[in-house]
């Protein structure tokens, strides 16, 4: 669908210039220099010919159809030029010109105008305020960046054009190759969502990288990414995660940075691998792009130096990869071949005087061992080390295997030739063992994410009707807040257990109800006019006898009348008192970018004082709900300490899924808190004791 | 004191060889090639001359005195050769030969023999099983590594020789320079402690780096490092931190990896900056070595690209550095000079079309601004960017300032010339903004560490005598474990408050005591023969009336006799019942490498189930005790939640310091637990309710 951007049959440059100082010259020149094979049309009312190509005063004067137009003229001329593109039937336009949303209110209006024109003519638009588009296979370099990077399987999109130039320059130095490169600019139309979808189907791209400052449509972003990451890894770096960073984003492109908690949840659920630095982004990309998938978490290390082997071991274990014992056969074969002082255990230390034959033998054996899923080969340049021969040996062994092999040739001057040779075999080299380990960690995350995908979102059978009716009624009364018995109606409709509860209109009726429920009971004054019941003594807990109940009834009725004169008082709600469970809290608030952000934590101090909360964006799967519960630091308390039985895990998963569905079914729920959900011992379920929810004034 | 290793007037190589395949050739050749200016004596019984130098059959045949001897012969000949060195009066020997501790039990015996000989003759010994020693200023390259690195202010020691070769090779590629390089090998004699002390006084070294697998004498290591880090930064990478890594260390050099908690505490207290990767080690080193100190935490960013500016901001804030608003003057000057679309706020965005003049103006203003302590200059290679001119401008501005400036020229091919120019001005370049930010973070840690040093360890006035007497008495009875009333004697001697408590020999006496203390009380059966009192019903709490006390007395005496026949029962201990504080736990165990490791945590589930504990090695300062308390995740609970008053912070600091002194005064205390220390509200102190301690069988 976005093909016209990447493999157009013809390209026009509006604003093409003869002046080498102008961007319009650079763009045209780059297209030509990169050996673009289609038709090229410079558009410039003041020239007949530019760089050997016939120039036209307007796009409408070009006699042939045009697939892609690049606009690089002052901002005030962009809207009419875009209008002409529409009239000409162009479907893909890159607007490099700046002076739009990033330039304040007037710029934003100009940008909205662009969007309107694009929609009118069904054109897709990249930019404005961007660097342009590259496809190394077409080849097309429709940017004003000097160089076209080497061809390779990495597709890269960046919200920051300047960061893109740095990446392109880095690529020129070799050992990394790109299929596509897009600077997204202000994302007036084409965004990460469109490019991910398109690139998921692109046979030239094995991995998708993105630099993101903010995404426009969070739910669609997650949905799309979920589909795309089934097909190929997506690695992203999200900037603006801290308060200052987030301010810096806003001042940069005016995009909303969003809450870090929501991004973290969203990227996790979408299966996007998050890189914490630019360096990590490209470290991961090279492993994904050039090596076969890592099918398990068991890593072998072959090294000629103990120290770096230990550093690799530490780094791998730190990210929960395993350094397993080798199988007996491998161990014996290695012991038989290697010198006595060598280590035939994992990490395999072939010793400082190892020539390439020792590496070749050891690597072959380790790669062949079924207990090993991937290998790091560490080479330090010692006196007798054969850098180049060893690189060739590593390359040959890796080619024969379907397991990933990452190089860690350490040093610089002496190892460079070896690193170049590794590269000929498609083996990325990492100058430090920690970085190789982390790249394997990213590969492992991707695989686990794939495995996790089997568990999709499962709809739960509920009766939405009473909830619809309740919400309509509440709104018709001009209210937006729901609690107590009304909240229980919602909870019951969604399959939650709630405490037994009934309205008593007099003290004797209260005693009858309490007798039926069993003591102790809780009582609450029932009045639509008293919101903060506790403040007026309208809540009593742990009432143990009929006498307690009678006293409580009369006292609450008396106080209600005294403290809130004129309040309608219907009586008292008598309620089963639930004891003996662990209290957890389920909450939801709406993130401006991603929608319903559901929170889970232990009740009391754990959420409030210790901020020990996990988040996911609804709707989520049973597997995700399970992870949410395990993610909190206080999870051991739910597993049971000091001989306690574990809390009912499935009941918590179930409760989270029901909340996920509730807030998805009813977008008008703005906020929600179940506090507490009382969770009983394993097998005994859970009960929602209290819920508050806030609706939007309008039905959504 | 170790001068003979680094600037010897003469060097002999025992095992010097004419065969270029032999290490003995490499070492001699390296000494000569590196232009060593002193006397050189090859020692080889089978040659008259090697590489143009007169050879001698034995060290004893050399007519002149020798400062430094390098031994590179098969292991079985090393002890006699070392003996001859001693007889000759040599004071410094490097043993490169392997085949010692790392080679099993027999090797260990050979190594002990070396140590004995060295001690006998008062020789210092580096190695065995090492790469050798380099001093770039002498110049001396007494290693078998091919190259001598460029001269510079970084002194590097490594327990791993192979890792050393990688580092040397990296250095050859430039942009980093070393003063000294030592491969420590098995550390039979000279260890990190000796080198740190020596290098602290070395005017050629501005920063000390170390790769450590294990340290031999933890307390001395900390003491030495504390002194050294007052003078210059020490940056270390510790390997073997994970379980697998730690096994890998043991198999590598047989050194004890030690517990990660103890290392973490030790490095922290010693003021050593811990790098989490090799890359970080050298990133930090270059900032310390080549830039002035960072005197505060306020960082300015100058960039020609928004995206990387945000990444830098995120990374800085993540490690708690500040990105302050610029002063009004700076802001106005920048606004006046920069184009309208530029950002005159911090990060200062000079825009993609910035030439070097804009960088120069902006950087000068930001460096001059008193609200800024250090600067990161980000340059992406855009179409109009003047890489080299900008690098010169940055260099000039940095030279005029006493604030650190780090470069972040991003890319590779196009920026390389700029990076080389920065280097001429001593400005390290980091290819990604996150790495520059982390280097500043290391500089900030070092400064804070210096500030923290003002607070030293303060001895507390205590009466050790009763504790000595008690321990003697306990040991004389063949016991090693102390609890209850005996433990209170220790606590009282060290100035702790303990609950009022007295022995009652009969029920009426128990009631008298309870009347005096006030109800409720706690009672415990008093018997030296009943260790687990709770198991035999020998503890009763919350006794509220004289009747309760009488019943408890009789019941406990009856049960003690029934469950532990023959037990000596002295009566019951009646004890004030302490209520209304927050329970914390103070513990101590002895780490095999660092000694008394003191632990702090909240009582109950926080320590047991949530592992929320902080550690320091005793003795520690009030400032360190304060940090220990703030470090636990549950600290907000001590500050008070839900309107609670804060717990008495100074009382906890005081308790930790008293424990620190107790375990330092009495090395025979192997383990100790105060559980709980009841901490009352701010200003109301704390009380130690219960303590157990375990003594070594022998007085230490």
Brief descriptors of the model:
D-amino Acid Aminotransferase, Chain A, domain 1, homodimer, Rossmann fold, seven-stranded antiparallel β-sheet, 700 residues, Dna Ligase, domain 1, flat, alpha/beta
CATH homologous superfamily classification of the domain at 455-497 and 580-700 in chain A: ATP-grasp fold, B domain
- Alpha-beta classification of chain A: alpha/beta
- Share of helix among residues of chain A? 25-40%
Strand order of the largest sheet of chain A: 9-8-11-10-12-13-14
Into which percentage range does the β-strand content of chain A fall?
A: 15-25%
Question: Any idea what the CATH architecture of the domain at 455-497 and 580-700 in chain A is?
Answer: 2-Layer Sandwich
CATH domain fold name of the domain at 455-497 and 580-700 in chain A: D-amino Acid Aminotransferase, Chain A, domain 1
- Rounded to an integer, what's the Rg of chain A over CA atoms? 32 Å
Q: State the end-to-end distance of chain A.
A: 32 Å
Mean pLDDT of chain A: 92
Report the total helices of chain A. 24
């Amino acid at each position: 669908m976005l093909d016209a951007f990447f493999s157009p049959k013809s390209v026009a440059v509006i604003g093409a210039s003869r002046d080498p100082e102008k961007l319009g010259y650079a763009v045209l020149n780059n297209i030509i220099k990169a050996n673009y094979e289609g038709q090229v049309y410079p558009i410039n009312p003041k020239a007949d010919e530019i760089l050997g190509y016939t120039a036209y005063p307007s796009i409408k004067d070009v006699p042939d159809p045009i697939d892609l137009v690049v606009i690089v003229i002052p901002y005030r001329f962009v809207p009419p030029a875009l209008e002409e593109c529409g009239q000409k039937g162009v479907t893909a336009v890159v607007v490099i010109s700046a002076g739009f949303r990033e330039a304040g209110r007037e710029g934003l209006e100009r940008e909205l105008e662009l969007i309107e024109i694009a929609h009118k003519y069904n054109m897709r638009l990249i930019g404005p305020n961007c660097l342009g588009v590259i496809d190394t296979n077409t080849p097309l370099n429709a940017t004003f960046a000097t160089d076209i990077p080497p061809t390779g399987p990495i597709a890269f999109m960046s919200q920051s054009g300047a960061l893109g130039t740095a990446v392109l320059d880095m690529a020129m130095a070799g050992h990394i190759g790109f299929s596509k490169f897009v600077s997204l600019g202000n994302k007036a139309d084409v965004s990460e969502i469109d490019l991910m979808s398109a690139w998921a189907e692109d046979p030239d791209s094995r991995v998708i990288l993105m630099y993101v400052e903010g995404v426009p449509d969070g739910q669609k972003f997650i949905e799309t990414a979920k589909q795309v990451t089934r097909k190929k890894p997506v690695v992203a770096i999200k900037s603006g995660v801290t308060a200052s960073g987030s301010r810096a984003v806003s001042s940069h492109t005016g995009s909303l940075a969003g809450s870090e908690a929501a991004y973290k949840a969203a990227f996790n659920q979408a299966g996007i691998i998050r890189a914490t630095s630019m360096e990590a982004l490209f470290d991961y990309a090279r492993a994904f792009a050039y090596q076969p998938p890592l099918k398990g978490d068991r890593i072998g290390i072959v090294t000629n130096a103990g120290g770096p082997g230990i550093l690799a071991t530490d780094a791998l274990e730190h990210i929960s990869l395993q350094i397993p014992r080798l199988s007996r056969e491998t161990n014996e074969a290695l012991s038989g071949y290697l010198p006595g002082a060598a280590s035939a255990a994992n990490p395999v230390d072939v010793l400082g005087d190892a020539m390439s034959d020792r590496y070749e033998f050891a690597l072959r054996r380790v790669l062949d061992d079924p207990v090993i899923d991937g290998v790091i080969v560490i080479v330090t340049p010692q006196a007798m080390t054969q850098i180049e021969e060893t690189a060739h040996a590593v390359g040959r062994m890796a080619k024969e295997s379907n397991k990933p092999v990452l190089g860690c040739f350490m040093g610089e001057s002496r190892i460079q030739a070896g690193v170049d040779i590794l590269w000929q075999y498609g083996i990325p080299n990492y100058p430090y063992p920690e970085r190789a380990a982390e790249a394997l960690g990213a590969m492992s995350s991707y695989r686990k994410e794939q495995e996790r995908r089997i568990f999709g979102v499962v709809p739960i059978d509920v009766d939405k009707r009473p909830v619809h009716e309740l919400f309509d009624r509440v709104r018709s009364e001009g209210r937006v807040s729901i609690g107590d018995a009304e909240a229980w109606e919602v909870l019951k409709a969604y399959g939650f257990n709630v405490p037994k509860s009934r309205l008593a209109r007099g003290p004797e009726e209260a005693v009858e109800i309490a007798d039926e429920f069993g003591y102790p009971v809780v009582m609450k004054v029932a009045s639509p006019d008293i919101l903060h019941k506790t403040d007026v003594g309208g809540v009593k807990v742990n009432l143990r006898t009929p006498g307690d109940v009678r006293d409580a009834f009369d006292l609450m009725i008396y106080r209600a009348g005294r403290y809130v004169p004129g309040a309608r008082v219907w009586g008292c709600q008598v309620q089963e008192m639930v004891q003996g469970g662990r209290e957890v809290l389920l909450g939801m608030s709406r993130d401006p970018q991603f929608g319903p952000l559901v929170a889970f934590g232990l009740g009391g101090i754990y959420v409030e004082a210790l901020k020990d909360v996990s988040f996911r964006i609804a709707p989520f799967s049973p597997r995700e709900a399970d992870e949410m519960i395990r993610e909190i630091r206080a999870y051991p308390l739910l597993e049971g300490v000091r001989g306690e039985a574990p809390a009912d895990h499935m009941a918590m998963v179930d409760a989270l899924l029901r909340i996920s569905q509730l807030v998805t079914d009813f977008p008008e729920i703005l906020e929600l808190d179940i506090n507490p959900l009382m969770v009983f011992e394993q097998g005994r379920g859970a009960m929602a004791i209290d819920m508050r929810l806030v609706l939007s004034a309008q039905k959504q």
